[in-house]
Amino acid sequence: xxxxxxxxxxxxxxxxxxxxxxxxxxxxxxxxxxxxxxxxxxxxxxxxxxxxxxxxxxxxxxxxxxxxxxxxxxxxxxxxxxxxxxxxxxxxxxxxxxxxxxxxxxxxxxxxxxxxxxxxxxxxxxxxxxxxxxxxxxxxxxxxxxxxxxxxxxxxxxxxxxxxxxxxxxxxxxxxxxxxxxxxxxxxxxxxxxxxxxxxxxxxxxxxxxxxxxxxxxxxxxxxxxxxxxxxxxxxxxxxxxxxxxxxxxxxxxxxxxxxxxxxxxxxx
Length: 269
Ligand code: SF4
Description:
about 270 residues, two-stranded parallel sheet, alpha/beta, 7 strands, Gyrase A, domain 2, 9 helices
């Protein structure tokens, strides 16, 4: 028998009621007469017979690695493996399945609807950091915003950021993110901010480039920073690597800002 339903489970029951389906980040949930089907949203039109049948217990392992075997430090990164389906027979199993695929997401989704929501904004969060993360406080608002814009871009994470820093609004509902909220900076973003601060401290070199040369660099960086081409040698969580896609995105945004508006190339979102 199902244990007593948690408040998030009760709220999610209402959210699903009457729907044909609900996309929870990359996972499509289809309520059935008894239970709920889960599969990758990109497999929505495929026959079950074409897909691998997984149990709820298989999902945690599925979420650990990308199709190339690389570890997924952020489970809401848009690189969940495809080609499977799973049935959660009860609401408790559905909660378990969602927690395996997106740890903490259902609770955060529910908490975001509370009044007040337990949101920790960037300055509040980093103000409590000690040790090697203390230096993050030295980032200016503009530099912190640049780090957040790059680190939380939709190409890296589908959580909808509801926290902010001065000069940077939370993610808009139509920003291409998911229904899963992000209530406070995560460890990957924190480490990225630390690396961003370290890069700033190093003496900068002056390089004179024409707008056309910057545009060429932007195109090259777009290709190099595409997470779909990431190899296992460029680990997403290793932000000390110059080839890390978040670092490439940060540099790309910086170069973009140097271009006159008339010749700017829109950032990939
Ligand atoms: S801090 Fe940014 S990267 Fe981390 S979970 Fe939140 S939105 Fe995603």
